[in-house]
From TrEMBL, chains A, B:
UniProt entry tagged with the keyword Zinc: no
Similarity remark: Belongs to the prephenate/arogenate dehydrogenase family.
Pfam families the UniProt entry points to: PDH_C, PDH_N
Keywords carried by this UniProt record: Oxidoreductase
Sequence ranges assigned to domain Prephenate/arogenate dehydrogenase in this UniProt record: 6-292
Protein name, per record: Prephenate dehydrogenase
Length: 324, 324
């Protein structure tokens, strides 16, 4: 049973967009896609999906009140949003890009804010392209849907329904709050993994020996340094300001630990607080709640619930919340 | 077929020492153990192993040319080495402690250098005590045996045979070189994991949200922050000087990446070099070689082989290498 009957138009059939098309179709939700290259669209059609490489025709179809989900690389966003504004002004709009403040600014520049609720599915693999797509990529994952003061309630509802129909739980958050959080749990973490991998090679006296001796702790910590550099750069560079704040905190902690070790021979402070933080992460639970959409200050209330660990697993009936 | 018939006396039957006693016994090697607490020795005996909590009697037995392997916590090392010097001066001596320069200095202080070759099995779990022991903990792991200029060839041979009989491959290294390497592939990596876990909680605006959104990259990078703080502290604080060098390199890389991001909007330099370093790690191969023990400069030659990725999987016949 899908959470909305509105057809979904997925723009970009790479790992994320293609996996969304698969998941929605499997959930019985009407969904179709567009891909820039004919090869990508052909591959999706060969697997039985409704896909095209004609953007104009695809958007003409979406203009009938469908929801458009943009899953193209960042450099293509402006052109795609401009096309949506011209050819599908009556569609609702969401996306699947990993930064949200920057995308909201691009949406505003295209004049589409009144149709838009941003999104970020927290899932992925090191693979890319249609061949890597899978219908269960988002199963039990979190799927952020942004609730900024400008977010229209119907767009939020439709964007959330897409996430739910993909098998995810929806987490409401402000765009800035989302970007600050992912800077800390993903972007800075990737840079720490890169620095850890690199440090193993920086001792001229022992580099080959170090790699021979590296065991499970090194393997786990540096695993994400195996991600394609272009993907890591796109995430990190697209979230510059929040990432700078996160890096400043990490660097300050390491400098402080280094001084404590040099001056007092101990790393107790960092190790004990780091261990406690990891325990907090392991203890995290999701608290399902039913969102009220459209009343006064509804976006702020949603942000507060998300901030406290609230997740949305079902939507209220589509009547305005004040009538319920 | 074991690599030596010399009986092994294991001092300390926690996770590492107990697992060594299990592995050696399973390999048909004569082995027995001592544990400070009677409870630990009783548990080993209940599982069918030859174990005692009488150190004097145990060392009297080892004095008949056996090899003593010390696997006690660092604070107990000096007392145990002094007992070995008094009661088993005719035994060979090795250990299983994760730093080597500091242990070699303690061995020298006890007057045991002429009987000693240090060792560090590169394996472990987050568990501890006899209950956590397992006979296959070292299967295919690396097992460093130190080859310093003062290392006696018979001690190196006996220490290496213990590692081989536990199912590991032996990597020769100088003590200082070992300590520099593990600072980079283990100790600093643990501190980076602690800092990553902590950074997720340091943003006052979004901490709970960050933990809700944390996905596989955060889980993997921070996993070792779940290790007991006392174990992380013992490793890190026991290898202070080498760890300070490693931290300096890591911190310099992060500061440089932060500046590049702030000034030029890119993290390309760190990401591309980190990715290349991880690829180097994934490409590491072990090159088996047969060590020549006892000739002029044999320790230096072994260190050079270990430095280039050489591992020992079998020992030469016990005749001096010059006679072969």
């Amino acid at each position: 049973m899908s959470h909305s009957t509105t057809p979904v138009c997925v723009l970009g059939l790479g790992l994320i967009g293609g996996s969304i098309l698969r998941a929605l179709t499997a959930a019985g939700r009407p969904a179709y896609g567009w891909n820039r290259t004919a090869a990508g669209a052909d591959a999706a059609r060969a697997d039985g999906f409704d896909a095209s490489s004609d953007l104009r025709a695809t958007l003409a179809r979406a203009d009938a009140g469908h929801i458009v989900l943009v899953a193209v690389p960042v450099p293509a966003l402006d052109e795609v949003f401009a096309a949506v504004a011209r050819q599908a002004p009556n569609a609702w709009l969401t996306d699947a890009v990993s930064v949200k403040g920057d995308v909201a600014a691009r949406v505003a520049a295209a004049g589409l804010t009144a149709r838009y609720a941003g999104a970020h599915p927290m899932a992925g693999t090191a693979e890319s392209g249609w061949a890597a797509t899978t219908g269960d990529l988002f199963r039990d994952a979190t799927w952020v849907v942004t609730a900024d003061d400008t977010t229209p309630a119907p767009a939020w509802r439709e964007a959330a329904a897409v996430g739910l129909d993909c098998g995810a739980v929806v987490v409401p958050a402000g765009s800035a709050e989302h970007d600050a959080a992912v800077a800390r749990i993903s972007h800075s973490v990737h840079l720490l993994a890169e620095a850890a991998a690199l440090t193993a090679e920086l001792d001229p006296g022992a580099s080959r020996l170090a790699l021979t001796l590296a065991a499970s702790s090194f393997r786990d910590v540096t695993r994400v340094a195996g991600t394609a550099p272009s993907l890591v750069r796109a995430m990190c560079e697209g979230n510059r300001d929040a990432l700078l704040d996160a890096l400043d905190d990490t660097i300050a902690e390491l400098i402080s630990a280094r001084a404590e070790l040099a001056d007092h021979g101990t790393v107790a402070d960092l190790v004990e607080r780091g261990h406690a933080a990891r325990a907090d992460y392991e203890a995290v639970t999701r608290t399902p709640f039913t969102p009220e959409l459209g009343g006064p200050g509804w976006q702020r209330m949603l942000r507060e619930r998300g901030h406290l660990g609230g997740v949305v697993t079902a939507l209220p009936s589509s009547a305005p919340s004040t009538d319920r």
